[in-house]
Amino acid sequence: MFKKKIVSYLCANADALVISIFAVVCLVIFTGHNGIGISPDSIAYISTARSIHEHWTMMDFNMKPLVAFPVFYPIFLSIVMFLTGSDIVQTGVVLNCILLASVVLVSSKLLDRFHLHSVWYKRILLLFIAFSPALTEVYSMLWSETLLILLSLIFFLFLEKYLKHSSVKNLVICAVLAGLATVTRYAGITLTGTAGLMILFAPHMEARKKAGHIGLLSLISFFILFLNLIRNHVLVGSLTGPRQFGHTPLLENIAYYGKTLSDWYPVFNQEHSTSILIGLLVFTVVLLLFFYRTFKGKYYHGQENIAAAFVMVYSVFIVGISTLSHFEGINNRLLVPIFIPSLFALTFWLPGYFFGLRSAAKQASMVLLLGFLLLFQYNATAHLDEMYQDAVTYGVPGYADDSWKKSETANFLAKHPEFLKKGIKVYSNAHDAVYFKTGLHADELPHHIDKVYQEKFYQEKAHYIIWFNSIDDPELIHLSSMYKHRKLLEKYRFGDGWVFLFDRKP
Question: b/e map of 74-108 (b: 16 or more CB within 10 Å)?
């Protein structure tokens, strides 16, 4: 019986399986030079996963509790380490291949749930997903978005089931998935917002029932987040670690939002003013589509509408939080959870449109659509090819690429850790790289805005500075400031950096 179900599934989803294999092969080629890509955030995840695996504690490479990021992704990585018996850096490519293949297969399932189903429409969208530069960039890295995207798509499946039958069981499943997504990446809270929005505007549901179900959804999903935040507060006295107020204006964030969309759908130019218009246009179109279905009451619970609601909620959250709080500018990584939902929300009408046309109009429309798709795919393929050329030649950008693999400074310290005398504190302008490349512990240099930490730093006794020339972080104090406030005792030059020994000035 079980074998028959497997054979039946394989036959019914053969196209999606083939396309998922294409996606996996492309990712294997992309990461083939040096393996999975590693960024500063990746090192926080890796070190915490290793800490869980080896010591059952959630400590990052700074030897401090992980609070800047939610805890579920490192827990997930540690589970993979327990199951495989290998370090997550070695198995990262295999893990992301499984996650990406799962994303393609779940996307296929969602497309099958569309009101107007078209096999060729589904296959075209799955190919866009499989060969997307947006997803290729993310799944070539050890980032929490790889898990968040999959959790979001599974959430959409159960949200549709709930909206159809108002089943408490499916609502609880949605709440648990939303809670896990939130402690995978804090932006996952938008899944709770999406479900709340869909329940709020759901037709044929009593107000009292809506209030009760929104309350249950919030109680479960926020309780999971609450546990994470309480843990952070107990350990370090902060809910999410130190955060800075935003200094990027709202319009500029909308421009970054629009530019990212232009990169995803490369048929527009990317001038600053155009990016603002594209961002506002796409959001407005999705907003109108959602409210049209809401007030019409037609297919309200459909995947097309759920996707539109998520794009709205997530977009408002990211643009808003980027304006209120300071972190990296809006880019592909921040917005990639809405890449697939935006494809769904913006293109769902195509099968119905062509079905209703007469022969001559259908042929003319097909020619226009084909031209658009060719332009879209040409630009996307050109971008993807450029990424592939860099990745297969130098490795995925980050701490695993050739420039870091051949780092003279890091390689020397990895082979000669005794070079740094015991008892003398170590700082670096890339303290995460010091841990990842050498296994040594170094503290981060003070930030310009943290005057208290700076003063304490300048008054310390002797300490080492490991300085990498390739790192240019304007938020950290520079060497010139250290020369001014500290006394240089020794310095050692390498091909890509320096090691300094400073002491307190008399």
Answer: bbbbbebbeeeeeebbebbbebbbbbbbebbbbbb
Q: Do the beta carbons of residue 66 and residue 48 sit within 8 Å?
A: yes
Q: Cβ of 158: how many Cβ atoms within 10 Å? A: 21
Q: Which helix (H) or strand (E) holds 454?
A: helix 451-458
Token pair belonging to 83: 């199951």
Cα 197 to chain centroid distance, Å, stands at 23
Task: Report helix angle 14-30 to 88-112, nearest 10.
Answer: 150
- On whether the pTM is more than 0.90, the answer is yes
**Sign of the C-alpha dihedral computed for residues 219, 224, 227 and 229 taken in this order:** negative
* Cα angle 116, 153, 178; round to 5: 130
CA dist 173 and 147 (Å) reads: 17
Q: What does the alpha-carbon distance between residue 204 and residue 207 come to, in Å, rounded to a whole number?
A: 9
Over residues 1-32, the pLDDT tens digits come to 666 666 676 677 889 999 999 999 999 999 99
- With CA atoms as reference, report the closest residue to 71 among 234, 184, 193: 184
Question: CB of 186 within 8 A of CB of 70?
Answer: yes
Report CA-CA distances (Å) from 364 to 119, 271, 354, 360, 381: 21, 31, 10, 6, 25
Q: Residue 466's closest CA among 432, 430, 436?
A: 430
Residue 323 tokens read as 């304006």
CA dist., res. 162 & res. 164, Å (int): 5
Determine phi and psi for 450, rounding to 5 degrees. -95, 80
Count the alpha carbons within 13 Å of 455 in the hemisphere toward its beta carbon. Answer: 3
Task: Please report where in the chains the tokens 């996650």 appear, as a residue.
Answer: 99
Going by C-alpha positions, the residue among 40, 76, 50, 47 that lies closest to residue 61 is 47
Q: How many residues does the chain have?
A: 506
Residues 6+ apart with CB under 8 A from 493: none
**DSSP character string of 113-159:** TSSS--HHHHHHHHHHHHT-HHHHHHHTB--THHHHHHHHHHHHHHH
pLDDT score of 170: 96
List of residues 6+ apart from 380 with CB closer than 8 A: 128, 131, 132, 133, 266
Single out the residue of 135, 144, 140, 181 nearest to residue 44, CA to CA. Answer: 144
Instruction: Enter the DSSP assignment of 450.
Output: -
What are the tens digits of pLDDT across the range 220-269?
999 999 999 999 999 988 888 777 777 788 989 998 999 898 888 765 55
Answer whether 135's CB lies under 8 Å from 20's CB: no
Whole-number Å distance between alpha carbons of 358 and 312: 34
CB-CB contact of 437 with 407 (8 Å):
yes
Rg, the chain, Cα only: 25
